[in-house]
Amino acid sequence: MITVHHLNNSRSQRVIWMLEELGLPYEIRRYERNARTMLAPPELRRVHPLGKSPVIEHEGRTLIESAAICEYLVDLAGGRMGAPTGLEDKLRYRQFLHYAEASMMVPLLLKLIIGRIPIMGKMAAKKIQPMITLHLDFVESELVARPWFAGEELTAADVMMSFPLEAARVLAGLDAQSHPHISQWLDTLHARPAYQRALEAGGTYDYA
């Protein structure tokens, strides 16, 4: 049994979604953010020294980092939702598996954090928006050519990309007028039965 240490409104929601897509057995241990600071509670440090989520435990192993967890789940599922066989699709899979956190999530987090600073923070956040728009335009151009990020099938790359794009819709003005293909992609994944089951299992999630 896989144990998911799940923090509300966090990246761990996509781990639950992937588990539902793969049909792997799991249980959830829930943690709530501090309502004032929005930080994870200290109890998570008992699971891993960094005190962050997602964290999973399985067969005596404790794993962190969303992409690493996704790759681990792909291996457990015999390669399902992993890299496609074609070279170009395989390269896109690897690219977006890591791009989600290494590139796209960075300006979104900056905008979220800086935007909470009175007056000057909001002014600085406006300067970050063009960086976010640059990423959204790139992602939109990728989804013009294919229904999923690595080709014709849902993969772990889509799971990884879900959180930054959900956050962009809430925090950075992503909508159907400015980026119709991203918006359609989000609507499609949100309608998937496994995604809906993950929402039920994970509880309140402000980005869906």
UniProtKB/TrEMBL annotation:
The lineage of its organism: Bacteria, Pseudomonadati, Pseudomonadota, Alphaproteobacteria, Sphingomonadales. Pfam families: GST_C, GST_N_2. This is Glutathione S-transferase. It comes from the Bacteria. Residues 1-81 form the GST N-terminal domain. Residues 86-208 form the GST C-terminal domain. InterPro entries: Glutathione-S-Trfase_C-like, Glutathione-S-Trfase_C_sf, Glutathione_S-Trfase, Glutathione_S-Trfase_N, GST_C, Thioredoxin-like_sf. Transmembrane segments: none annotated. PROSITE patterns: GST_CTER, GST_NTER.
